[in-house]
Amino acid sequence: MSDLAIVLRSLQTRLFQTLVTAATVAIGVGLLLTLLSMRESGRDVFKRGSGNVDLLVTAEPGALVSVLNGLFYAGAPANPIPWSRFVEIRDGYPWQWAIPMQQGDNYRGYPVLATTSDFLTRYEPEPGAPWRMAEGRVFESPFEVVVGAEVARATRLGLGDRLTVTHGSGGSREDHGHSHDEYDYTVVGILEPSGSAHDRALFSDLDSSWVLHAFDRHEREGRHVHVGVDDLEEVDRAITGILLKVPSRGGTSAALPQQFVRLQREGFTVAQPAQEIGRLLAIVGNIDGLLVAMAIAVLLASGVGIMLALYSSMDLRRRQVAILRVLGASAGRVFSIVLTESALIGLGGALLGVGLAAAGSAIVASTLVERLGLVVPWSLDARLALIVVLGTTLLASLAGLLPAMLAYRTHVADHLKPIG
């Protein structure tokens, strides 16, 4: 019988203990790989999502909240900015571009961003990588909508399809989520994937959003009339955020800090998205560092588990070892058999852990989309997975050293006496 056959027979004899030990290893490996792979993917998504914007201006209570809501659709901004204030900001400085945004509407839970066509022609979701149309064109008229790649995939919307949007989340008629069947949007464009949270959004013009809100205002006032763009009043023209780009020549403009302070003094919340994301990643980095340390601790504990499992079984296997010695197996061969058994447990658990990591990464990615609107593409780095598998197998082999030494030192005569 070959050494491998002996090892497999031994593992089969202690099947339950072997499976439990391997499962412990798999949990540690799966957790470690999931954290490492998703951490890098998550960082990339956040870095890409802020785009080529210099300043984000809102009326929200904090800069980080503004960035998460305005660029990552974590929630709908609650505080409006009158259109007249946007005009003052736009005309008060020679910006490279100024793009207004209005949020609060959604289609089947996917956010609808009302803006101008500049959002799809001048704003870049990733610096140096402008929007690309998979089909169709940018919206040009009211109630035309461009669909993000993830929305198109999930809803199967195509060019020419018509849809109605829902807006609000509170308890009143204005805030309570309800569908505006009175107005149909037409899909005129579908975007290619950008790898950012914008992939799960739809984009339309401001007039369309303002008309919906004006319709609700008329209903609250008891006037059940069909509202058009020509019926809009100043109270209807409100936005929730402004994207600003400062003119520069290949670098950061010296005017950026001045404009930042000026807008703050005018009562706005002003955020530099790249800086806010950097601060967020620094905070998250401390947390995921702790989680990685915990995963490594679980992995080390599984190594101790392998050692204890093999060590406790040696008392029952000394007679088996003695028989192998009588049949001609050297002490070194017995040592290698036990060490191989330990390594196989580690290898089997590690491979199972890779499968758990793939499933775990998919679940985490799905949760981020549903809860935060972050499209985090998950993938396991084959090189990283190989390193972890080899490292885990080595750890398991080291855990088997003590049981292997016990097997090596087994005295043949003492363990071949008749039982009973």
The residue-averaged pLDDT reads 80
**What is the domain total for the residues?**
2
Low-confidence parts: 169-176, 410-416
Distance from N terminus to C terminus (CA atoms, Å) equals 28 Å
Query: Which overall shape is indicated by the principal axes computed on the Cα atoms?
Result: elongated
Largest β sheet strand count, sense and barrel closure: 12 strands, mixed
Give a count of the beta strands, DSSP E runs of length 2 or more. 14
Return Rg in Å.
31 Å
Strand content: 5-15%
Structural class: alpha+beta
Helix % is 40-55%
Order of helices and strands: HHEHEHEEHEEHEEEEEHEEHEHHHH
Subunit organisation of the chains: single chain
Number of helices: 12
Report on the architecture of this protein.
The chain has two domains: 3-45 and 280-415, no CATH class; 55-271, no CATH class. It contains twelve helices and 14 strands. It has helices spanning 3-13, 15-49, 63-72, 83-91, 118-121, 149-155, 206-220, 255-265, 273-326, 331-372, 382-399, 401-408, and strands spanning 55-58, 81-82, 97-107, 110-115, 133-136, 144-147, 162-163, 166-167, 178-179, 185-191, 202-205, 238-239, 241-245, 269-271. The strands form two sheets. Strands 1, 3, 4, 5, 6, 7, 8, 9, 10, 11, 13 and 14 form a twelve-stranded mixed β-sheet that branches. The longest helix has 54 residues, at 273-326. The protein is elongated. The relative contact order is 0.18.
